[in-house]
Amino acid sequence: MVFVAAALISLAVFAASQAIFSRGLATTQSRLSRIATYGGHDAPPEPADGAPHPEPPPVAPDSASPASTSLFGRLRSGIEWKLVAAGQPVSSEAFYKMLIGAPLALMILTLPALWGSGAESLVLLIALFGVAGPMVWLSGSVARRAKRMDRELPDTLDLIVVSLEAGLGFEAALLRITERGDGVLTEELRRVLAEVNVGLGRRAALQAFAARTGLPSIAALVSAIVQAEQTGMSIAQVLRGQSDHLRIVRRQHAEEAAMKAPLKMLFPLVFFIFPSLFVVILGPAVLQLLKAMRN
After folding, report:
1. pLDDT, tens only, 262-278
2. Residues of the chain with pLDDT under 70
3. How many whole angstroms separate alpha carbon 37 and alpha carbon 42?
4. What residue segments make up the domains of the chain, in order of their start?
5. CA distance 198 to 259
6. What pLDDT does 287 receive?
């Protein structure tokens, strides 16, 4: 029975991987057909009168594309977005191989040890841990990278403001920051500049940047920059205001964490520290009392 269940799980995982890979192949073929249609571009060319086409919105993980209408499509789009948000620690193919190989390897390792002990059903539970392990690792990578990006954002905005006030343009200021900076936010800004250099509009590149990261702070920053461009406001003033706001939010988060610290310390204090103190302080007295009662 356990072998049958393991075989069914393996077939289900294999079918899911095939569906994911087939959808990826269909997407690639669609893009190649568009490139062939538009003569080397992945988008329709601009009309002859010079009026540009509307810039395509960034692809969000919950977009209603044909690939995301099914369960496997939504799962694949979520995994692809998490890989991008985590800084592409591994390729998509390698991550899918991890999802398939981890449960199979755990079943192969644990089934001989548990066979005949009456606990063969634990093999299925261990196989589920093999599926959840890569997903938990990927979600943790996304959270850690987002935290680092939030930490670097105010200082980076200050450097961009200084460059803008010195007379540089927005793209030139980003170029100066990316040449001398290092960090996850600098990597994302390099990608924004690369997209602008290949012909993507500034607004579309910034919106794609916000969609890749999925951070509220980045989304608010991009919205402020786009609004400043539309209304003619100074981008330096907008960025300075965003930097001050982010520092206020950071200070509020620090105060909130400081207020939560006594409550978090209550559990180890009651269950670990107080018993040790009671043993050290009351232990000799209890021993003396027991000795006196025996005498």
Report:
1. 888 888 888 888 888 88
2. 1-69, 113-121, 123
3. 9
4. 2-40+55-144, 148-249
5. 48
6. 87
